[in-house]
Amino acid sequence: MRFEHLGAQPRIHPDAVVSPTAVVSGDVTIGAGCQVLHGAVITAEGGPITLGEYVIVMENALIRASATHPVHIGSHVLVGPTASLSGAVVDDEVFLATGVRVFNGARIGTRSEVRIGAIVHLRTVLPPDSVVPIGWVAVGDPARVLSPDRHEEIWELQKELDFPGYVFGLDRETPDLMIQLTERYGAALARHRDDRRLD
Fold it and tell me: Which of 102, 127, 139 is nearest to 117 (CA)?
């Protein structure tokens, strides 16, 4: 399913194959040889998404851009089933395995592997040829790759990256943080009420 969002329509190369149950919404460019499988969602929430050539987006993966965090995925990249990528840059020849999470402002270098269930956190930079092991967390610039049992170290690095401020423009110490966050974000997402289905 293709949707016009905020006046922008997806541009899909004629050699690309997009499943009829995938959703492609807004300012999305999909290059030659790409495959977007069943249930995948590629949604440009006010910022562009670009997929290079021969990108495979597998079942139920989510790729999301925002006005302040566009997405660029290079060529010959595999985005595994149920992976989630938001507002990030992924260079060529990268493997994002099943269930990985890549957050806003992250950059993943050429030929890197983010293995099953691993996380590349907010504003984290992985150099070329990096590996994030199964279930591990990459955080910071330069990235530190830590096992999930090292929560305190991860949090010390993560809190400086300021997720609520960077993504939502809100101070973490705001007393009614979740009220402000959900109302503000909900208003932005409500722009989908004017989307137009194209197929």
Answer: 102
Count of domains observed in the chain: 1
Q: How far are the Cα atoms of 5, 47, 78, 181, 197 from residue 115, in angstroms, in the given order?
A: 32, 27, 11, 31, 35
User: What number of other Cβ atoms are within 10 A of residue 147's Cβ?
Assistant: 12
| H, E, C per residue of 139-163 | ECCCCEEECCCCHHHHHHHHHHHCH
The total number of residues shown for the chain amounts to 199
**d(Cα 100, Cα 124) in Å, to the nearest integer?**
14
Residues of the domain holding 109: 2-197
Spatial CB neighbours of 169, under 8 Å, sequence gap ≥ 6: 184
CATH number at residue 55: 2.160.10.10
Contact criterion met (CB below 8 Å) for 113 and 91: no
Annotated catalytic sites, by residue?
Answer: 69
CB of 116 within 8 A of CB of 132?
A: no
pLDDT digits (tens, 9 = 90+) for 57-105: 999 999 999 999 999 999 999 999 999 999 999 999 999 999 999 999 9
* Claim: this prediction has a pTM higher than 0.90: yes
Q: Which residue has the tokens 């983010």?
A: 114
Residue whose C-alpha is closest to residue 104's, from 120, 122, 127 = 122
